[in-house]
Fold these 4 entries.
Entry 1:
Amino acid sequence: LDNESNNLVVVTDLIDDLTENGNASLVCDGAFFHIRCACHILNLVARDGLAVINKALGKMKSLALTVKGSPLQWEELIKCARECGLDTSKGIQLDVATRWNSTYLMLRDVLHYKPAFLRLKTANRNKYKQISPTDDEWKMVVTVSQCLKKFYDLTVLLSGTSYPTAYLFYRGFCEIKELLDKWSYSPDLIIREMAKSMSEKFEKYWTSSNTALAVACFLDPRYKHKLVEYYMRKFYGDYFQIKLDEFISVLKDLYKSHATSTP
């Protein structure tokens, strides 16, 4: 179900039904029964970040639509881009409402042509005055776009189909958590507001999914418990040993479950 609250109700009921009166057994008492879609979580968190620059984002979309919807305006933009010494082989991707990463790519492309858009506004003020971002809005978009690049890169990595991805999730999400914690103390008000909005959504999913992600990481023989312990020290400080012991307990239960079910 595409709703977190409904999912929790359904999953809780299913676990209760499957464990009622000992009729069935779930691995580790259902600890891995409900695993969220990592890329969907990144999508939700990134959208909360984009909401911080909603007004500026609307203007960026208008700029992209204006030049992409008119061959004449596109030629004018490319002419201005050449005058600014920009690489004109790059296009501008239009935003798709259901895909946050398309919004990021649109911002990236529009920012590439920023000097050309500024020159275009000067040459055709009546057409571009109302839809052009202010200097402060350009700065906000640059700042947020730089922050969201990590989300985009991780989404691309986790969406791969020609290589294993399970062991990548824990490290990737830990890096996101580190960034959100860092942004929460940024001197830039926009970044702090963005981090606050994104952290609320991120923590809701992180709390119930990090164990499963950590197990997948642990099963990579290159890391085992070292990487998990490294991030637990960072996130839990003096209490990391308690969390690590809880994780080791889950691993032991997982092994016992596997051992008893193997013929």
Note: DSSP finds twelve helices and no strands in the chain.
Entry 2:
Amino acid sequence: MTSLLAIALAAPWVIVPIVTAVRARHSRSLDEESALAPADGPLVSIVVPARNEARNIARCVRSALAAKYPRLEVIAVDDHSADETGEILRRLASDDARLRVVVPPPLPIGWFGKQWACTAGAEASAGEIIGFFDADTEQAPDLVARAVNAMRSRRADLLTVVGSQELGSFWERMIQPQIFCIMLTRYGGTETVNESRHASDKIANGQCTFVQRQAYQDTGGHGAVRDKVAEDLAMAQLYFRAGRRSFLVLGLMQLSTRMYTSLRELVAGWGKNLFAGGRDSVPFGAFGRLIYPVLLVVPALGGLAPPILLALSIGGVFGHGVLVWSAIVTGANLIWWLSVYAWLGLSPVYGLLHPLGSAMVLYIAVRSIVRGNRVRWKEREYIAG
């Protein structure tokens, strides 16, 4: 390999981060909307599905009840939890009449638990707008008002909010930024998603999604995506195909989530989503789905292989061309990850250790591919559709 060829082959590692950063800037935020609830604002029903969420549920529900929005009800769905989730919810409900606790019937065959719980919560609600919040989220008091104003200004049937991610442990800080950067590279900023005319480019954040009740009912609710592990993505695509108006918006100051707290949770959580859920977002139809396993491992390999080849080239295993290529690519990756962690306000040490994060993402991706459409989550086994 000549030096010129090595430089040419390294170009994607230099160009892709630049393009990703540019596309990420093409985004809009809830900060653009008024934080004041409209005087004639509709009743908003917040639905929180929860199964074995004793660690998170009080924080989530209390923040929902603290919303500065006058016409509000909160419905927490205790999906047959085996921990103290139900007890905590009942205690909270005794202190605030706006909170109701619902226990759904046993999970039917063919349904994922979250979709079943969301359906039960929606059926028990009365709001013209329904907001679905994951139990591991915390909402700022102005979230609901800004979301309602955004839905009105955009005449939205569905509005989904991307918040900030809380990164507490070492492995969260190693793995979460890598996976979210992969998603950012794939989808771009909010307006890139909103302006796309292809269903495969549509995505939603199931951690926080608001829907107009009529549109939700007309499109089949969560029952229409009952067997999808990434129900949020499937719902966004469903609304688009049905001609409904759906929008993705940033809410970094209005919503925060701590998805997973340990390596075990990270492996299990992303392992259920990356393949069985991600394949629904692949363009090029059947061909895209066929090559998706390869596409899934490429980003992690792109972060892991260059420093390995650089070390081997320095040791004399490979020639000058590989040395030049691996040095350029490793340097480009390092600059990118140092920039990412600087933006996150975290130590540059995590940027220096980015190959370790890539190795773990590769492991999670391969594990997800091997499992295929078989999903295990919250002590339940599913077959993803």
Note: The radius of gyration is 22 Å.
Entry 3:
Amino acid sequence: PSKIQTGEKIDRMMKKRYFAIPILAIALHFLLSNLLYFLVERLVLDVFHVPPQQFMNHSYWGEILIYAVLILVFFTLYKLLWRKDISEPRTATNFKDVLGSLIVGFGICGISGLWIMLAEPLQKSVEAMNAGAENIAGGNAFGTFMIAVIAAPVVEEILFRGIVLRSMRKFAPAWAAILISSVLFGVYHLNIVQAAYATLMGIAAGILYEKKRN
């Protein structure tokens, strides 16, 4: 075969690889998070024989530990995947960009809030979402903050922007990669209301990542 044919074959193989990475990464997150929840529960209840009620009251420590492991795993995977792109230009973190990102985030939350208020046919989904929010960290304020505000978003950004979006950019234009990765981000929340605003938030985060590489 000619060098051109060989190059085209390698290019097709690389595209298939980068197409598979998002699917495998999302599947890994789903399986690993559920496995870790199961192992922590069995360890605490069956090995250390902690009473179930006491476990429920302090379960947020186990959840924080699980998210710490997930952050370590996916950040390591992120570094391994893109170690050859280390010279890629990226914007240094600065106050202006952080403030702009927060304004965009709160703006999308506001728009989503208005949409949710008007979506009367979806009230069951809203109730399910609220019930799920109440169950985070057993309702503990510190645990909820650490999990819902800090740990979960860090894992999601590493996974959906750092791995999924960046992989898709290897074989798709920016607009398509941002849109598809954002829809996947929304669908992964498994609730139609959450899926809608998570998709919007994913688009905003994707645009920011595409512009700043950070």
Note: The mean pLDDT is 85.
Entry 4:
Amino acid sequence: MIYTITFNPALDYIIKPQHFKIGKINKSNEEYIFPGGKGINVSIVLKELSQDTTAIGFISGFVGKEIEKQVQKYGVKTDFIEIQNDNSRINVKILEDNQETAINAKGPYIEQKYLELLYEKLEIIENEDTLVLSGSVPNGVDSNIYEKICQNIKNKNIKVVVDSTGELLLKTLKYKPYLIKPNQQELEEIFGIKITSQDEALEYAKQLQSKGAQNVIVSMGSDGAVLLDENGYSYKIKALNTKNAVNTVGAGDSMVAGFLAGHEMFNNYEKALQMGVAAATATTNTLFLATKEKIEENLNKILF
């Protein structure tokens, strides 16, 4: 089972107006509502690839109930903790001429008692399961929360995946996470440098591996991605054509899901990376997240 945690899930309300003008009454041509949050994105793409997954996180109010309903609609199991204050987020995204203007809400405050409930839920995770920790954290949650989670489960043989930034990521390295996936910008921020090639990305990936990470993927947008695996082998892959990209939200999450599913299918790190890139590209070419059909189509392009 692959578990994902989303601390601050949302409903993404996507509006496609025509000739949007600030300060005026605008009419929308199309509207969509999707569940949002990095862990939720990972679970949905995993389910598309026939992987057993459960989404954990915090929900609140009528918005939270709708988030759970929407996630379950994609066949994902849920085990959310319901907070008795405020409402979960509704993020508004305005799309026009392939440009996105977003207003992201802050979400509810998470009290310590709810974090304790989360730790209790983590006890159900068994040896050989995978736990994905991704995204930033909301009000009430310290920047060492991922470290605390790793501490709580360190005596089990659980594969921990961390897809986050700064201290949230760095504080987990001493627990030897199975996979981390900084993107190029995040890697540059960690080391205070500018990366100009895949080879340079691999050099800094080695530094993160020396601090404890087993496998390191660096996603590099239009420059593709690199992987340094736990056996010391490195892999470089070019990006697929994304000239028709309509969405970048969830691409990194899709890469994580594709990698995990790909390794489960092929037991091969290079093929897992290929699946990750195929999934990420599929997401950039759709309004929401990658479908199995589009992922397989992209994978064939990579292989042949």
Note: The longest strand covers residues 28-36.
